[in-house]
Every structure is written in structure tokens, then in C-alpha cells.
Write a structure and sequence with these properties.
Elements: H1 9-35, H2 39-67, H3 73-78, H4 85-117, H5 129-137, H6 140-158, H7 162-189, H8 194-202, H9 211-224, H10 231-236, H11 245-273, H12 284-287, H13 289-294, H14 299-330, H15 334-357, E1 367-368, E2 371-372, H16 373-400, H17 403-411, H18 418-442
């Protein structure tokens, strides 16, 4: 049973939105959209987010608040017989692996942020931004120190607990993130030639849709809402019983869509305005955006703002990924064990991330199934573990929990009626599992 709760509804929503938004929306979505056809990918992503994503987010909210337990114990309390807690263990492993490479990107952000303070990013020698990215990411000491700094920042917040740590940080970071984004969107849209980037991002070319596009969009929808790893089960376990779950879920989803929309409007207009390529992959914001900002008046200042924004977004997601691993290990002994376990978990995640961090330098020639370790871990988590976790969670909640408990938990504090419950339950029981299985089969 959770012994700590969110101080306020807005604190929970901002923390949950922070977990959802993070790098999944600000870093990963633009580069995946750039490689998967732009508007077609974004349209499918939105459809999946509003349908399957919203249903699954509510599913995790219902399970977490009903049991008041995090990963592992939530499943065990509903179904004591059997090995259903393995779903929670899968979520913890997925979160651990996800943060192991995610924190590497957080380290890159810190490295670029530090360099931009000295004016070294938007004005590299010979104007070669790809070479600058390679120089930074191949330097094991620079990215290693930045990676460690990112994990220490994450640990220092999570060790303070839900109210004093995660909620307090999210209440300050999330509004700041929106303000910074608004400033950058305005600047990006006023560039000459920006409209071509807007068209690429928002006008769908349906001929570009493939099985890969569907899988990437599905994985991105789950990634963007932190679904499939029981993060939202853990966060909602700290909710009071009077909270309106549908309203909270839609608040998180709408904030996620807003940030996804703004991220595209910051990045793609600049990419096309300066005749750059949108399909750079994971390096997009580190090789293309410095080139864009380098051509602008006060470009260094705008790039610095963007890196601060990225750091805020990355940290709010990292908090949730550490919390899901720590919470089951300390449940019932929070005050005694939280600090120690947070440091142990955080440093283990850092150690697991070292091969990903060296994938662009010392281990660049070491490949796993034909690709560098960083890319393979990203693919494993985003396209296999997250959809698999989402599939298992949807089946578990919709079939193993009693229908009366589901209805009571979903509708408590809400003005919605039985029809809303029936649509949600049908979606979670049938549509979500079928959609995930069909997408997997389409790749075989």
C-alpha cells in the first residue's frame, strides 16, 4: 500500500505529463517522423495516441489506483495465484533498459549545453556540425562525465520522494518547458521557407505508410505516454480515491499532443528553411538544429534555450523511470530505504548505459545483429518490450480484474456513465490486443 501521495491533482498531471513528454516526444518523435515520411507518420501516431494510447493510459491508472501498489505488487494483489507479477517485472526491466540509453542522450544534452555556453556549438570549425557531434559523442571522457551528471541529477530528485522530489521538480520544470517551447515555435515559424517544413510535418502522404511505419507509430505512441512499463501504474498508485481518472488521462494526452505538435514546429521549419535533411535519425537535434540556430540572429541564445528545454523534458521522464524500479524495492519502508535504493538503482542504470554511450566512439565497430548497441537497445525497448508490455497489461486488467471493480474505479469521481465504461472495456479487451498483434504480424 502506498504510504505517500501526490500533494495536488495538478502536481500528478504535470508529473505524469513530464514522464510522457520527455525525450520520447521532444527527441525521438521528430527524428522518427523525419525517417518515416513526416505527416503520414504523425497522423497515424495521433490516431493511435487518441485511441489505443488513451485506453491504455486509463488501464494503467485504474490498476494503480485500485491496488495502491506499484509494479509487481499491483499484479500480485489482483491475481495472487499464478505468475502475473512477471508483467511488473517486465516493466521494471524495460524501464531499466530504456533509461540506460535514454540517459546517454541526456548526457549529450548536458555536453552540448556546456559547450553552447562557450559559443562552441553553433559555430564549429569549417561549419561541420556532423563532425562536431562525432567529436563530442566519440570522446568517452566528455560524454561519460555528462552521462554520470545526468544520472546524478535524476537521483538527487527521486531520492527526495514523490511530493518533495518528483512533484516539486515537475511543477517548476513543466511550465518552464512550455514557455521555452512557445518562444522557439514563434522564432522557427518566422524563418523564410519555414512553410515547407510545416507541410512535411503536417500534410500526410499516405503512400509512405508501410508496416514499419505502423510499428514505429505504435511504439512511439506507447513511448510518448510511458505505456507498457507500468510507470503510470506506479504514478497512479499515489493518487487519492477522489481523483477523476478520465479527466486526468485526457489532460496528460492533450499536453503530450501539444508538445509533440510544438516539437515538430520548432524542428522541421528550420530544417527545410536551411535546405537540410529531416531523416538524420537520432542525431537530428544535435547536427541539424545547431546549423539552423547558427544562421539566426542570437542563434547561440536560442540553441541554449532549446538545450535547457531538452534537459527539463529528459529529466522529468527519467524521474518516472527510476521511480518505477525503486518503488517496489522500498514499498512500506520508504523513509528508511529510498535514498540508498535510489542511488543503487541509478548507478546500476548508469553502468548499463556505458555500452550505449560508447556506441558512437570506442565501441562504434562493435555491432549486435548488424547495428550498434545503442540502436539495438532502442529498437528492443521501443518496438518490442513496450508493445509487449502494453499487450499484457491490457489483457490482465480487462480479464483478470473484476468487472465491478473496473467500473467503480474508472467512473469514481467522474460524470461519465456506463456507455463510456463499456466502450473503454471493449477497446482494452479486444481492439488494443488485436491491433498490437496485427502490427507485429505485419513485420513477419
Amino acid at each position: 500500500m502506498a504510504t505517500e501521495h501526490w500533494r495536488s491533482r495538478i502536481g500528478f498531471i504535470l508529473a505524469a505529463a513530464g514522464s510522457a513528454i520527455g525525450l520520447g516526444t521532444v527527441w525521438r518523435l521528430p527524428y522518427v517522423a523525419g525517417t518515416e515520411g513526416g505527416g503520414a507518420f504523425f497522423l497515424i501516431f495521433l490516431v493511435l495516441l487518441l485511441t489505443l494510447g488513451s485506453a491504455l493510459l486509463l488501464t494503467e491508472f485504474v490498476l494503480g489506483r485500485h491496488t495502491q501498489e506499484g509494479a509487481i505488487r499491483a499484479y500480485k494483489s489482483v491475481a495472487p495465484k499464478g505468475q502475473w507479477q512477471l508483467i511488473g517485472i517486465l516493466g521494471m526491466v524495460s524501464a531499466f533498459l530504456l533509461l540506460s540509453f535514454y540517459s546517454v542522450v541526456g548526457g549529450w544534452i548536458i555536453a552540448f549545453l556546456v559547450r553552447s555556453l562557450g559559443g562552441q556549438v553553433t559555430s564549429p570549425p569549417d561549419g561541420d556540425y556532423t563532425a562536431l557531434f562525432a567529436a563530442i559523442t566519440s570522446n568517452p571522457w566528455e560524454v561519460g562525465a555528462a552521462h554520470l551528471a545526468f544520472m546524478v541529477m535524476t537521483i538527487l530528485v527521486v531520492q527526495q520522494g514523490i511530493r518533495k522530489g518528483i512533484e516539486k521538480a515537475s511543477v517548476y520544470m513543466m511550465p518552464a518547458l512550455f514557455i521555452l517551447f512557445a518562444v522557439l515555435v514563434v522564432r522557427s515559424l518566422t524563418l523564410d521557407g519555414a512553410w515547407e517544413g510545416v507541410v512535411f510535418f503536417l500534410q500526410p502522404d499516405l503512400s509512405a505508410i508501410s508496416g514499419s511505419t505502423l510499428l514505429e507509430a505504435l511504439g512511439q505512441a506507447f513511448f510518448s505516454l510511458s505505456l507498457g512499463v507500468s510507470v503510470m501504474v506506479t504514478y497512479s498508485s499515489y493518487l487519492g480515491k477522489s481523483e477523476n481518472l478520465p479527466r486526468s488521462a485526457w489532460s496528460v494526452i492533450l499536453l503530450t499532443i501539444l508538445i509533440a505538435f510544438m516539437a515538430g514546429l520548432v524542428i522541421f521549419p528550420g530544417v527545410f528553411a536551411f535546405d537540410l535533411q529531416p531523416d538524420e535519425g537520432p542525431e537530428l537535434i544535435f547536427t541539424v538544429l545547431p546549423a539552423v540556430f547558427g544562421e539566426l540572429a542570437f542563434g547561440e541564445m536560442f540553441f541554449l534555450l532549446f538545450m535547457i528545454l531538452m534537459l527539463f523534458a529528459t529529466l522529468t521522464s527519467a524521474f518516472s523511470l527510476v521511480e518505477i524500479v525503486v518503488a517496489p524495492l522500498i514499498r512500506g519502508k520508504e523513509k528508511k530505504n529510498r535514498v540508498k535504493m535510489t542511488w543503487i538503482v541509478g548507478l546500476l542504470i548508469f553502468a548499463m548505459g556505458i555500452p550505449s554511450n560508447l556506441s558512437f566512439g570506442l565501441l562504434a565497430d562493435w555491432t549486435v545483429f548488424g547495428d550498434i548497441f545503442f540502436n539495438q537497445i532502442d529498437y528492443l525497448v521501443s518496438n518490442i518490450l513496450l508493445p509487449t508490455g502494453a499487450l499484457l497489461i491490457s489483457l490482465f486488467v480487462s480479464w483478470k480484474m473484476r468487472k465491478v471493480d473496473l467500473r467503480e474505479e474508472l467512473l469514481r469521481g467522474s460524470q461519465r456513465g456506463p456507455m463510456f465504461f463499456n466502450i473503454w472495456l471493449f477497446t482494452v479487451r479486444y481492439i488494443v490486443p488485436i491491433a498490437i498483434v496485427v502490427v507485429f504480424i505485419s513485420l513477419i
